[in-house]
Structures
1.
Amino acid sequence: MKGITHYSIDLSSVFENAKVGIAFVDADGNWEGGNENFLRVTGCTEEEFLRKNWNDIFEINSTHPGFSTIKADSSKRLSPFELKVIRRDGAQVWLNVFLLPRQEARFACIAEDITREVVFKELDQLERNVLEKNALSYYTLNDVLDQFIIGLEQIFPDMICSLMKVVDQRVYCWASRRLPDAYLKQINGAPIGPKAGSCGTAAFLKTAVLVADISTDFRWEEYKSAALPYGLQACWSHPIISASERVLATFAIYYKKKKSPEPMELDFIDRSSKILAIILENHENIQSLKESDQRFQYVREATSEAIWDADLPKGTVVWSQGYHTLFGHAHREEEMPGSSWSDFIHPDDFREVTDSIQKVINGRKKTWTMEYRFRKSDGQYLRVEDKGLVVRDQQGKPLRMVGAMRDVSTQYEYRRSLEELNRILAASTRDLEATNAELERYAYIASHHLQEPLRMVIGFMDKLYRSQYSTLDEKSRKYLSFARNGAEHMRKQILDLLEYSTIGKEGQKFQSQWVDSSSLVNEVLAEHQAYLDETGARVQVRELPRIWGNKKRLFQVFEHLIINAITYRPPMQVPEIDVSSYREKGMVIFSVKDNGLGIDKAYHQKIFLLFQRLHSRDQFSGTGTGLPVCKKIVENHGGNIWLESEPGKGSTFFFSVPDQPD
């Protein structure tokens, strides 16, 4: 390399193998050569370096007026000069520089990279200043954050720093002096997520996101159009996480060039993030404490409760204003004697109350609650609920007891009236149950005894019809047919009523068993195969579970629902029924879905009442007891029955039974 031949062979060897930067400069400050380490720290190629002067490499400032000053001072001092190099890529490098005179008015320049030490020394000072400011109450959080961001950008001029607050899974600008306002407006309030730029992704993943090229990174796909027009090409973001693992904010560094972080920069990001976490957590803690103190003060001033704080060793108590508001007794801000409480307890309650509270104080329990009567200043008594908390030292000795008294007189009277009402209701319920039982017995007996005369009426009508058929005119025959059909329908209604009255009376719980509901539905279909063939009905039965219940009664439920689904359809329409089930909250829910007529919502409850019909007997036969029977069976199993339906859109009937035995 040019200039090396002026020196001895030993110096040339040192030059080539040195771990520090070594370069040679002439008397005018023109560079004659430099080793690989010197070229690295200055950021120059060999050709560029040889065309430069001393003052082209080192920054001129108040501490470094130029080469001539360094040259003059080097003969007087052995200590290094601390100089700054601003490389072509904009990076700043600090060097300890020794200028050593050599032969023929030339100099050897030895440079040691101290960038890390200088940077972290400046960071130390910045952090001390910021933390001191954070500890002073007259500085706002924004003042502290702004100072920190500005200080970082002064240490690293090519960085653009930003702090984003994370609130309700969204990011909001907190501190940023150099990001364009238009860019901040576009990202402010953006949701966090796995592809939400650097900051939103870092907050979502709770880990650093280092993007060297915004234009190609998949996490910036939706946001690069906001960043690139302002020259923002790289962004490294680090989440600020509290001790409770909550993301408070994100600290981001932008560059107007594509750039990956170097080891020193990674250390800087991690260190700055920890300082910000300290600042933000400290602020949150202070705010929480202020709010807590303020809330407690508001409670003491605003509540109608009498809040008290008793000093147990001294036997004194401090009352809130509620002591006067609630009871009318004189109130002082300072301590009052314990008699301000004990003297006003009702005589009949005194022993029980004082023994109870003393037992808690002498024992190991922390809390005490009691309801008793407390005398007001006018001599009347209020029923109060008193709650207290015992505060003990590390040895368990009781020191204080804090608590509150509130007026529960109204609630007490309400409870008494409610207890009396419950007593009356219980008696009424017993009477009603007895009445219902009597009515059910009557319905059973009446329906049972009415069958015989109806059979006789129907029988004599049949005989009359057969014996007198030839002598009756057409009108008489029609009347006789109407009478017989009416009697037959009445007989069927009586039988259905008898069936309805017996549900739950046959000791069903003792007849319950595990029932394969798929097999049960197939039995229903097999019994009515002729009707299915006649109507062309298509019934799809999904996989159904085993359930605990009365097989006979559950057969009736499936039978009613499936036959109804086939019957109540538009003329000429092929019935399609789907039977399925699912589990929910400890219940098995069965559904029977059809493509039939549908039912208006106004009748969804009415159809479960006895003898309620939506169609005339000329359109569809039936007595109106099928769905009420289903409802009673399902409820007797501990479940419910309901439907979803609209006219013209078919119906889906649901019923539930417990998925386990009681």
2.
Amino acid sequence: MTQPPFPGRIPAAPRPPGPSPATAAARPVPVAVPPRPARPPAPRPPRPGPAPAVPARPAERPLHTDAFAPARPVLVPEAEPVRISVDNNRCHIYGICQQEAPEVFRIAESGSLHYTRSVPAAYAAKARQAVRCCPMQAIAVHGGQSPSGGPAAIGRPPARPLRSGSAARSSLRRIVVAGAGLAGLSAATRLRERGFDGELVLVGEEPHRPYSRPPLSKQYLSGRLSQAQLLFRADEALDAHWLLDTQLTGLDAVASALELRGGEFLPYDGLVLATGVDAKRLPEAPVFSDRVRTVRTIEDAAAVRRAMHSARARHVVIVGGGFVGCELACTARENGMDVTLVVHSAPLLRRVLGARVGAVVGALQRRAGVDVRLSTEITEWQDHGDALRLRLDDGTVLDCDFVVLGLGSSPRTEWLRGSGLEISDGVLCGPTCHVVDQWGRTVPQIVAAGDVARWPNPRFDAEPRRVEHLIHAVEMGQHAADSLLRGPARAARFTPVPRFWSEQHGTRIQAVGIPALGTDTEIVEGSLRSERFVVRYSRQTAYGAQIVAAVAFDMPLELLDYRDQIGRTLPHARPAGRRGHR
């Protein structure tokens, strides 16, 4: 197959001086959906249990890692060509678009991005997936048949139904998506793509339509992106009811109904749990102080931005050495603030990237002027009204204007207590994304997706884990929707390769896989000294050394070669001194 022409071109690593104008379309007005009169909330029957157990299939047992094909999401083909445009002011050349649609996007050897403006129908679904996964929402798709059942699809035949799920789909009159973030949006869109023509309701606790969260700690905080520019652009026309600014208070899995604030019940025939996570707080930090902030929602980021741009704000203390804390430190330094990064462990990002690579991140931060305090804790907080005074465990006293907590997250599951579901460290799922209850039984009519879901990825092992990345939310939302329509007995296992990225003082950090699983690291491209390299992570298993991740510093093009290796085993090394037979 010949490569299509690439008439569009974007210079490498642009750094715009200011925000670009907002171009996002107006958001539809939320529509209230009253419960159906024919399904009044039933009295809660005694437990246990929501549903009979679905027997485990032999295929659900972990397989030899080389048994897995390269990870590619299942897409619904589109019948019409589309047009693509890329906003030069937003694009940061992360290369996610080339991973999703190499026939449409290409990173040149010089580091610039080239793309096809007119995309044939054969590649339209891949192009739309690239739009969904773009962290900066820099890509827009125009024309074609809207796969989400919105205005562009009026008068056109619906998408081809999922044949193997026809029996399950016939009984699904209303599907409710609990959580109006990216995972929920992705699941809802896939339901329409698969031909579900029943009632579709999205319930969200925030008053906004789904938006991209990764730029909150960087581009939005610095003012380079507006709130409208963060809205997801690929699935704006979704035929669904939106219940925004609506708090979820409970789930009756037996009566198949969600309980909303005020005691209202919303019955469902199928349910997608995608409520995401909350930002963690320190129990000893002042709860009601305006000078102690987290960055999880757009309101949080707006409050930090106001404090950061205040005329009196000169010194900020950031607690936490993960990606959020490090990116916040970058943004504060870009705005001319003095920054102290207080980290309980050492080095930075050790739990995510390991000690060797984390030390490189620490060097980047210190060179940019960040005061990095490793293996340090705050023992005393004093709020003096016009400033905060912090005492560290080494006796140091810090006076600052405000504190931002970047301590990670906790799954939003408190509203599911008493539901009978297993919710320790997230909603437990089986390999197909179907939810598992406290007695270990699969619940056929409930699936989970995104940051709140904990499931075993057989590509690595049988241990259930949560993965909190944007691309993962897109892919798991799609897979959960497919599994809900197919049913547990026919659904496929979800075996993705997680992918994530960050930017530290101009250095792009990208990863595929789960680096935290690695016990051995090997520099396979570049060098640590140059701070431009690819490192491969592996661990020993019963089948040999398994490749679990690869991380690239300023090498987005080179990283592409390692995505399909994740989960496979390294070739057996030949013992030294042995010679092969001729």
3.
Amino acid sequence: MKPYSFLIILTILVSCVPSDKKGTMDTIVKYDSIQIYYDRSIGEDISITEKSKSLDRAIYLAKNLKNDSVLGNLLYQKSSLLFQAGEYDSLLLHHRNFINTAARINWPRIQASQYYLMGYYHDRVESDYKKAFENYSAAKNQFELAKDSSWVGKTLLNMATIQKDQNDFFGSKETVTEAIVFLSATEHTDELVQCYNLLATNHRKLFNLKDAIAYYEKAIANSVNAKDKIAFENNLGATLVDDGKYEKAIAIFERLLKDSSLDSSTARYARILDNLSYTKWLVGQEIADDSFQKALAIRIKKADMRGQMASYTHLGEFYMKKKPPMAMAYFDSVIQVSKRMNVPRAETDALRFMIQLQPNNVKLYERYVHLNDSLYKEELSVETQFAKYKYDDKLKQESILRLEKEKAEQALLTARERNKKTMSYLGSIVLLLGLSFVIYYFGQRTKRLKERNKLAKLEATLETEAEMSRRLHDDFGAGLNQTMLMLQSDADKSAVLDKLDALYNQSRNFSRAINEVGTGGRFKDEFLEMLHFRTPKNANLFVTGVKDIQWNEMAPLSQQVLFKVLQELMINMGKHSHAKMVTLGFKRAGKTLTVKYSDNGVGASLEELNAKNGLRNTEKRIQAIGGSIIFDTGKGEGFTVRVTIPF
């Protein structure tokens, strides 16, 4: 943020001071002193300490000025100076003082700049995503009040990036889409391109590979920065690998490595080289480990920890069949780096490969299950927190709009009262010139009108308050209160999420039933009870293979996921399919359980299937534990699903 020009402000203010000569001169002298101290604070020939002292003096002189914007600008400049100097403890203390003073500063731009700076500090320095998101959100609201679409879009982009880094890909996609709306009205091409790249990444993480490829191509087409374009093309190549289009990916990686603008000693070069080697290995080309090792060496030299995890993972896969012990060593390196960086998701990926190498290692499997369960709960908590931040911001904005409306209504009432008083005084003068009877008559009439008007105002006020109270209670208060009670009583987490999503414009209606599922010996009875309970009265349920399964041998996490997935399928059937017959077949083969679900209902088109959040969530649950789910349906053709899940 560039500091605001004090010279223009001071010129305007001095021209508006009272006509009193002594007061005018005192004000001019004070503004001149503030300008001198401010200019000194932004000079390049003095130390940070001297700059800070000059700003403190300017702030002291500005405290008693009628125009708060001067003080606000000085306070923000102080925050910026402390941030540049790395005096973060002082910055936090000064920020609290700024907030206390901001109550009487009616300039959203200054407050927006302050909140943005603090969001940047918590994001880039402290890595505290909660405080960063909270401050960015406050900055976004103030930029909106200042009608600055450009900075609203930039702030939303930062918020969406935080959500993506915390694995809230749905929330990030929603936020970055909102950012594009604001940035499209400006000429900030760089930010728009970053939005396209982020949107593509979110789609890739959500396995929407077609959309991911489209947005990466859009980012590449609109990028004017050579380094960014190389990064986007590398991302596109990696997504093509995910989509099984290996030859196209190899062509992209080979072209990028030949690009003269790409420095062969950089982490970006190592990333492309590693991707190329891995892709060639996937298609069966003979690859020596030298290409993997070269990329790893660059990443170690550049302290690229995330890149090192990728290299170790690829080397582990490379040696899984040739030299299993060496593969285990590389996967263990992934785990060590992931713990140092606090990236548990990378550890679960490594454990998944290690379990394949040592399928009888119970400790590995238990660690994998524990991490997956913890990550699921953490991601659920993160999504809830982000939703709550947005919901609270919405309430705050509505409160501000309501207060502004009340002020406008009060101003209108005051103007009407003033007019009535004026008319009353004029009437009194006329009445004094008339007969006593006329004076008395009009006096009584005026009194009755006043009483009647007061009563009407009171009734109108009460009706307005009642309507506002009803809306707050019905639309927000009741739902929020219910959500709080549900949280306090450890209620169904899915219901809590659904409640928050409904309060937030029902923008994400996740139908998750995540109540506790009895595992072990209780699982079979609860599972069958759920299936029969979810079967409509006018439908017949046929279940085969249940007695052949040793349910108590099934992993608790797999039991829970299976319960949730079939519960969602049964709920979807009861709501939409109008099926008369539902069949479920269970078959175990080694460490895998296969479940085939089918009904003779109305089925669904591909578009309708993609629109169902619940079914998408079942796919996410299954994939999270290494299973798979395949939908086979068409409009009017019934509904068939095949689920495979680790036993």
4.
Amino acid sequence: MSTRIHPLAGQPAPASVLVDVDQLRAAYLGERPDPTVPAQRVVFGTSGHRGSALDASFNEWHVLAIAQAVCDYRRAQGIAGPLFIGADTHALSMPACASVLEVLAANGVDAMLSAGDEFTPTPAVSHAIVQHNRGDGPRADGIVITPSHNPPRDGGIKYNPPHGGPAGKDVTDAIQAAANRFIEAGLAGVRRMPHAQALRATTTHRHDFLRSYVDDLDQVIDMDAIRDAGIRLGVDPLGGAGVHYWSAIADRWAIDLSVVSEAVDPRFAFMTLDWDGQIRMDPSSSYAMRRLSAIKDRFDVAFACDTDHDRHGIVTPSAGLLPPNHYLAVAIDFLFRHRPRWGAAAAVGKTVVSTQLIDRVAARLKRPLFEVPVGFKWFSPGLLDGGLGFGGEESAGAAFLRRDGTAWTTDKDGITAALLAAEITARRGRDPGALYAELAGQLGAPAADRVEAPATPAQKARLAALSPQAIQSTELAGEPVTSVLSQAPGNGAAIGGIKVATASGWYAARPSGTEDIYKIYAESFQGPAHLQQILAQAQATVDAALATGG
């Protein structure tokens, strides 16, 4: 199987693919999930529960049940501080935010809504939690209402416990089970009050997420260097939650930053179609990023973020849109050379599907490598205690410490990852694309690709359970296999699939945690032809596993 590129990929979205927002929101309020249908139950994937009201997989009942489950969880854990709420620009996010508040207020939880009902990015929520919990008072946590870069028809909700990052599986399993019990019981046990009353509740407060985050940026990014270099910056918020943050950043820090568009449209009609013909606000997709890539020469460096602004896309005059792995390697190499106050033992965090070039960069920097399964939750504790200087995923998610070596955010932060590209350009005099070419020339230039294909839930389960013993071959693309992993070397956690490596190449196969697809990641330091051999062998292995159960 292979990824089939839609004939309209990269083209402006035609009217025929635009979601009917009124119909979508009506379904959110009117549909009721059937708990006997697996696709209509609450299921927390890599980060939160996602679905569409049009499929009865994300509607009012799901959100009310999850919100009550969170209230019960935090009460059992003694979490008595405020709960910070963020929401992005998807059509279902504002209705879901209202549902969450109705439950929080009825449960007497101090809820922190954004000032002026501003959209609130994931990193601003994580930043608020981390900042609050620096003190000695009751611990804070948060809920972010977003399906990330998913299509406009989708909604999503995720919980961030007091460490500020995505909740671990033990937490999400408990919330998921409790929420499904509420749905099975017809929401019996869910406390709720009318939205207008919830807004007036003494436990409902306003928090200026935007100003708190923007004013603190010089603690994590050298904003003076960006300003003093006078470099020209461009940003496309892709109609996401940080849409008004960028002009505030430009004004507060007096930098030459042009915002391509501040349009907010829950249909996301301004987007170009992604590889499969869907609208998807993925800043790492060359198809979704056509608008910014077309004007790259206007800027010294440009960037974009996804809908909740936890992912980044970097566009350079020298190389166009950088693959996320390329930028991660450059960012790591720069940060650990230009953050003298970071602890000497602070490690480099990467996922098992991120480029092996990061391993080589970390070795040259003499920094320990912490390799974990897919999911940013694995990085959060290390970012909180300073044990990790940087954590990054090949899917364009990253976070790193403040300049003084303390925690900034413990969830992905697309805004600071983007501004770091500006700092790198300002301080090195070359954009990250040129610096990647130099780095690859020194340490090796990997060829990489990722294949996605449809998979049923049953097929995904078989792939996730694939064991090292199922891999019979002792060679991969002409080289001896050096390792077959089903657990990450950094923490021993299951990777939910398999990774096979040789001296100069590897592949990893795993099901998506949020969509009914599987993904094969592959990389070769011997060039594109060798990469295709790896992919062909990997696909044969996956096809056999899906057909027979592995």
